Each structure stands twice: as C-alpha cells, then as structure tokens.
C-alpha cells in the first residue's frame, strides 16, 4: 500500500483538489488524504474548488484537517504544494524529511516547484491551479503504479 498525503496551508483549495484528482484515478494500492499546516479542522473545500472539481466530473466530500503526527506517520509520501509547505512540514516533523517533497519535485521538476494558492481568486485562477495539479499528478502515476506492484 502506498499512502499519499497532500499538504497545503488551509486544506481547503489545493490539497483537497490534489486528493480528489488522485482518488478519481482509482490506482489500486494507493490511499490518499490531505491536510493543512495551518488548517482549521472541519471546514469544507472552498466554493471554487468544489466548482472546478464538479466541472471535471470529480466528486469529493471534504472536511479540512490539520497536519498531525498520526497523518505524518500514516503517509508513505507527503507531497506539498510549495517549497514553503515542505520546509514547514520538515521543521514540524524532522523525521518526515526523507518522505516529504513538493508535488512538482516528486513529478520530476527541479525548478519552479510551487503551485500558486488560488485562495480568494476567480474561478479562472482555480482552473489554472487544477490544471497544474492535474498535470503533475499525471506525471507521478507511473511511479505510484510501479511502487504498488513492488509492495504487493
């Protein structure tokens, strides 16, 4: 089993989008969750996050959650939306350093590793964030498939 934990700031925009996208791909042997480094437990995904997921025919029931030691331990990989999130995760949980990457870094990028926060922006800004997240998740699916085969 490969467990992916997506992390952003408030767990209402980017990380729930990433969670929903990867879950919708239904990769056998992959579990997905999301959290925020400064999240308030129990908030819904933002209205524009829900709209963009709906436009892409992805249903996702979401309640925000704060990053916890239990989630860090649960995760095989912690994939953050920005380098700042990555540094925050590692400073909060130094033992997570070896398994924490930005999503773009995990997808093979070596520069421009941040996915901009659409929070409070127009639906177009959310669509752009969705596309960027989707493209990077597509790039990691082969790696995840390979890893789940090795853990079978």
Question: Can you tell me about this structure?
Answer:
Helices cover 45% and strands 14% of the residues. The protein has helices at 14-24, 47-55, 69-74, 83-92, 103-106, 123-151; strands at 2-8, 30-36, 77-80, 100-102. The chain is α/β, with parallel strands linked by helices and 152 residues long. It has a four-stranded parallel β-sheet with strand order 2-1-3-4, with helices on both faces. Helix 1 (14-24) links the parallel strand 1 and strand 2. The chain has one domain: Response regulator (Rossmann fold).
Please outline the helices and strands.
Elements: E1 2-8, H1 14-24, E2 30-36, H2 47-55, H3 69-74, E3 77-80, H4 83-92, E4 100-102, H5 103-106, H6 123-151
Parallel strand pairs: 1-2, 1-3, 3-4
Helix pairs in contact: 1-6, 2-6
Entry keywords:
152 residues, alpha/beta, Rossmann fold, four-stranded parallel beta sheet, 6 helices, globular
Structure summarized in a few sentences:
The protein is α/β, with parallel strands linked by helices and 152 residues long.
């Amino acid at each position: 089993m490969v467990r992916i934990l997506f992390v952003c700031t408030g767990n209402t925009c980017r990380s729930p989008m990433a969670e929903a996208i990867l879950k919708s791909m239904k990769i056998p042997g992959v579990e997905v969750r999301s959290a925020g480094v400064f999240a308030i437990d129990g908030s819904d995904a933002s209205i524009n996050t829900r709209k963009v997921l709906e436009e892409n025919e992805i249903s996702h029931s979401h309640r925000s959650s704060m990053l916890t030691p239990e989630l860090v331990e649960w995760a095989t990989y912690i994939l953050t939306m920005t380098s700042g999130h990555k540094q925050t995760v590692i400073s909060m949980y130094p033992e997570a350093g070896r398994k924490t990457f930005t999503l773009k870094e995990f997808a093979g990028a070596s520069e421009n590793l941040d996915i901009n926060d659409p929070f409070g922006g127009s639906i177009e800004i959310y669509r752009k964030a969705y596309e960027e997240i989707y493209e990077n998740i597509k790039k990691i699916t082969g790696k995840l498939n390979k890893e789940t085969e090795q853990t079978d």
